[in-house]
Design brief:
The protein is an alpha+beta fold. It has a domain at about 10-20 and about 55-130: Thiol Ester Dehydrase, Chain A (Roll). It has helices spanning about 20-30, 40-45, 55-70; strands spanning about 15-20, 75-85, 95-105, 110-120, 120-130. The longest helix is centred in the middle third of the chain and has 16 residues, at about 55-70. The chain is elongated and about 50 Å long.
């Protein structure tokens, strides 16, 4: 559990590695009501030129939140999320999330974390998150 006064600028977050599996990709797309065939139908994904089904952005959002929540514990409150997608996440790969504290505001007890999630093809997700800490 992180408290505002414990956080240091430049502090590195512990890397989180998430195996990308078919159930994760399909389950994430169904849970977020994203019924685009490329997220659950192998033949449809391949017809689009993709080698496999691929993770949707809302599942990536969930992975980013999991990464941040693991660092803050239950008392942190994510208030701003700005991400960009890059290389797709395919089953059989691993998403490795890393980040660092890049801003700390005493006025509202918030910190900004700059993050990157990579797989074997490069950066899957990059961005920043602002979190309020007590």
């Amino acid at each position: 559990m992180r408290r505002f006064e414990q956080v240091q600028l430049g502090e590195l977050l512990q890397t989180l590695s998430v195996p990308i599996t078919v159930p994760l990709v399909v389950g994430g797309s169904m849970a977020t009501r994203d019924f685009f065939a490329g997220h659950h139908d192998l033949e449809a994904a391949q017809a689009l030129g993709s080698p496999h089904i691929f993770m949707n952005i809302l599942t990536t959002n969930g992975m980013v939140q999991r990464f941040i929540d693991h660092w803050t514990g239950p008392i942190g409150r994510m208030v701003e999320l700005k991400i960009k997608l890059g290389a797709p996440n395919y089953p059989g790969d691993t998403l490795s999330l890393s980040g660092a504290v890049t801003d700390k505001r005493a006025s509202d007890q918030s910190v900004e974390i700059t993050l990157k999630g990579s797989n074997s093809m490069g950066a899957h997700v990059t961005g920043t998150v602002r979190v309020y800490l007590p």
